[in-house]
Design goal:
This protein is α/β, with parallel strands linked by helices. Helices cover 40% and strands 15% of the residues. The radius of gyration is 18 Å and the shape is globular. It folds into two domains: 202 residues, Alpha-Beta Barrel (TIM Barrel), CATH 3.20.20.140; 60 residues, no CATH class. It binds adenosine monophosphate and manganese (II) ion (3 copies). The site of one manganese (II) ion has 4 residues, from loops.
Length: 287
């Protein structure tokens, strides 16, 4: 698979990525990406640095975020792009997500403690690393505390859905999340649709509700997805009348399966969501 010039799903140390925004931009640009978006979990804290680094590297960086939402009791991630970071609707969302992440982190810690894992100690380590702890931060802390040999194992044993430390979180609904992104002048995209354990029919209900709320697109080219998963995401976009997007969900250069820019091409029949972007890079082709 050739490198893609577009990668709209990337994480930095502003949430659970391993590279700081400047190092991320350098890494992404070196892999041939010309249009990127930094989409940290529920925060835009890395965007100013990423944007300055992108200007210096001669590539385009559009504002981005990955918002945690809930739909029918499940966690769903909604990407927002090219919004006004100073829009009041986005400001209210960011403040709310901050509170909800902290309160969920305390619930995760309490649940871990009840299961005789060092939840409180893990919370303290997580909060030393970030003001907005994700489960990734808990996984790293549990590994550091010797509860598991490494962070991926800690995640699977303690934090994955159905495990003792799992808490969905009291996130806004998908519809409210889309409305916030649209009210802030941005475009909303369903992140990694293949990762939700939903039947195809129910996934289409999600796609339809998402579009009716004002959603723009679906991640079709996603990092590490196989051909079956790509086809499923593509069919979701086509059946629900949504546009296509491309993003690796890159977090860590030590993880080999989703490097920035290693993405399948969108079929030419599917409109790319980045054509909506106000930036001149709206005309960048994915190839
Ligand atoms: P949160 O938003 O706090 O629920 O954390 C979600 C993050 O955990 C995702 O963005 C991934 O970076 C990470 N993650 C999700 N599933 C796994 C897994 N099975 N193993 C390791 N990390 C994961
Ligand atoms: Mn993550
Ligand atoms: Mn996600
Ligand atoms: Mn992500």
């Amino acid at each position: 698979m050739s490198a893609s010039a577009v990668d709209l799903h990337l994480h930095s140390t502003a949430s659970d990525g391993r590279l700081d925004p400047s190092a991320l931009v350098a890494h992404v640009a070196a892999r041939g990406v010309r249009l990127m978006s930094l989409t940290d979990h529920d925060t835009i804290a890395g965007l100013a640095e990423a944007s300055a680094a992108a200007d210096a590297a001669g590539i385009t960086c559009v504002t981005g975020i990955e918002l945690s939402a809930v739909w029918r009791g499940r966690g769903i991630h909604i990407l927002g792009y090219d919004f006004d970071p100073e829009a009041p609707a986005m400001g209210a969302m960011l403040a709310g997500q901050h509170d909800r992440r902290l309160s969920r982190a305390r619930q995760i810690a309490a649940r871990l403690d009840r299961a005789r894992a060092p939840g409180q100690a893990a919370l303290e380590l997580a909060l030393a690393a970030t003001p907005l702890p994700t489960r990734t931060h808990f996984a790293r802390a549990l590994a550091e505390l010797g509860v598991a040999p490494d962070a991926p194992t800690a995640f699977e044993q303690w934090l994955a859905r159905g495990r003792p430390g799992y808490v969905t979180g009291e996130w806004p609904t998908v519809a409210a999340t889309v409305e916030c992104i649209v009210a802030s002048g941005g475009a909303a995209v369903i992140a990694h649709p293949h990762r939700y354990t939903l039947s195809n029919g129910v996934r289409r209900e999600l796609g339809t509700e998402f579009r009716e709320a004002g959603g723009a697109g679906v991640e079709v080219a996603t990092g590490g997805a196989n051909a079956t998963q790509f086809d499923m995401c593509l069919s979701l976009a086509v059946r629900c009348g949504l546009e296509g997007s491309a993003g690796s969900d890159f977090h860590d250069p030590a993880v080999p399966w989703n490097p920035p820019g290693r993405l399948a091409k969108l079929p030419t029949s599917l409109r790319p969501v980045w054509r909506r972007f106000r930036a001149p890079a709206g005309c960048i082709e994915q190839a």
